[in-house]
Every structure is written in C-alpha cells, then in structure tokens.
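REQUEST ID: PR-0412
SUBMITTED BY: lab tech R.K.
PRIORITY: routine
TASK: structure prediction, single protein chain
INPUT:
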Amino acid sequence: MSTTITWTDPARAQAFNAWLAPLAAQHGLQMHTLRPASADASFRRYFRIDSATGPSRIVMDAPPPQEDVRPFVHIARLIQGAALNGPELLAVDETHGFLLLSDLGQQLFLDALRQADAAQADALMRQAIAALVQWQVRIDPATLPNYDGALLQRELALFPQWCVQREFGVTWTEAQQEQWSRIAALLTASALAQPRVAVHRDWMPRNLMVGPQGPGILDFQDAVRGPVTYDIASLLRDAFVSWDEEREIDWAVRYWQAAREAGVPLDGGLKEDFGEFWRALEYMGLQRHLKVLGIFCRLKHRDGKDRYVQDLPRFFAYATKVALRYRQLQPLLPLLEPLSGAAVEAGYTF
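STATUS: complete
OUTPUT:
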C-alpha cells in the first residue's frame, strides 16, 4: 500500500489538517507518521497515525455527501455500551466526516485464516461466532433502521441490473423475469419471517480484527434490525474465503447451540429444529449472494473498482449449490447457468 495520501479536493485537505492538528497535542499524535491504513468499497478512507504517548490511532475520512458518519458514530457507541471490541470514538466531526478512533490492530481475521491450519482456523471462527452471539444479545436493535421488504427487494434488484445486464449483457425474456420475481419473493418472505436482531450486514473475516480483547469489529455503519441468520450466513459463506460444507455445518451448529443458550431470539421452528434453521440460513445466504453479485459488478462499472469481479465464480457456486438443494429455488438455475459458465470462460477465478 502506498504511504502517500492524496487529495482530489484541496479544500477538503485543508479542512482535514485544520481539524487534526489541534488533536495532535491532546493525543500525542505524530503528524509526520500519517499514512494509509485501508480503503474499502465505499468513499471512506482510513489512515493510521502514531502517538508518542500511547498506541497508534485510526483516522477516518468520510466525505459528505457521499458518506454520512452519524450511523457509524451511533453504532460505535452501541458497541462500546455492549462491552464488545469496537473502536473508541476519540474525536468526532460529523459535519466534515472526520473521526479519530482507537486502533484495533493490523491483522484481519481474513489474513489470519488464510495462513491458519485447520485447528487455528477453527479457533478463529469460534471466536467470531462467540462475538456474534454477544452482538445479537447485547446490541439493542430498536434504534437501527429496519431491514424491511422494500430494502430486501432493492438489494436483490442489483443482480439483474448490474450483473445480468451490465456485466454479461443478457436481457431476460418476460418468462425469465417472472421466474426471477417468484424467486425474489420467496427469499424476501423467508427473511421477513425470521426473528429480528441487530444485523451487522458484513460480519465476515475482512471486517474482524485479531486482538487480545476478542474480535475487533469494523465496518458496522450499515447495521440494521433484521433477520437472525443474516450475519452467520455472511460469516460461513464469505466473499473472500470458502469452506467445505462439513465445516460450515459444524460452525453453524455451534452458533445455533450458543445462540439458544444465550437467549438470541429464535422462534419455535428455528430454535427446535436445526434443519429448519439451516434452511433459513441458506435462503438468507442466497439473498446476500445474489445482492453481492450485483454489488461487485456495480463496483466495476460505476466506480471503476475491477478487482471485486474476480470473485464472481465463488458467489455463483454458492448460489447454484443452494438452488440445487431446494425444489422451490430450482427455477433460479437456468437464470444462473448462462452467466456462471460465461464467467468461467472469461477467466474469472476463485
């Protein structure tokens, strides 16, 4: 990663320096050490800065109007109040979108998992599961936006718009559009029938940091009040690392048992029957995977971020496996197969 920080807007650079400079004395910040820490799929950027009096800090640059830091600030406070391992808010400028945060570390769960043997991977995933259960028990979803049917449908609509049409140039017939509408309705109904909890929406190894206080929780600003299986589906069927189904089921059972014991709200069917819970998880995962196929293609065509589409085959594989398993979802297969085959032929790889 480049150590140079570039600004396309000189006025924003000036505002940033004017905001950060007075904080240097208060927190012992060494301005010359400011450097990129990470960037994500949004317009947010993160910088790391060393301190002469303590650990390094993280600075978020979230330019309005593209980004609104208020949800991040609100949920960061919920995380702190729940005694989970999230960033501490050290300084907040909501108007300009600048935040000074504690540093949760430099090793992502994703990187650790890629280097881990089977036992180490199991230990890391169990930590992520335990933290998720605590998130669902301790974070009150009452103040979070509702993950309602309209939002679920808007997310699903990203797949035909950006993946089918823009990435692969395919136009569905009226009959195919009707098939898609029925599948989207099934997935939406399954999600809405589930108990509601605080949903991170990206509880995956790329958004968890390895640390002595348990997983450090990142990228939580889009949290909502939504389906209980969403985050465990995100963890088990990730965008950047995949597992064999035996391990997925083992971790899903461990989550299910821990959630029941901890008092995570599960209705009668999901609480008493793991098979029913697993079906709900798979339906929820399919909704997410179709959405992500659309998002990754949108990142390429709208935002010029091509690297994400290299993982399209992983999501086609997830979606195909679930559609094959459930009779109601099998009409999705003829919509997926022309695209997944074309993706492989085009050189997209896992």
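NOTES: The domain at 109-345 is CATH 3.90.1200.10 (Aminoglycoside 3'-phosphotransferase; Chain: A, domain 2).
REVIEWED BY: pending
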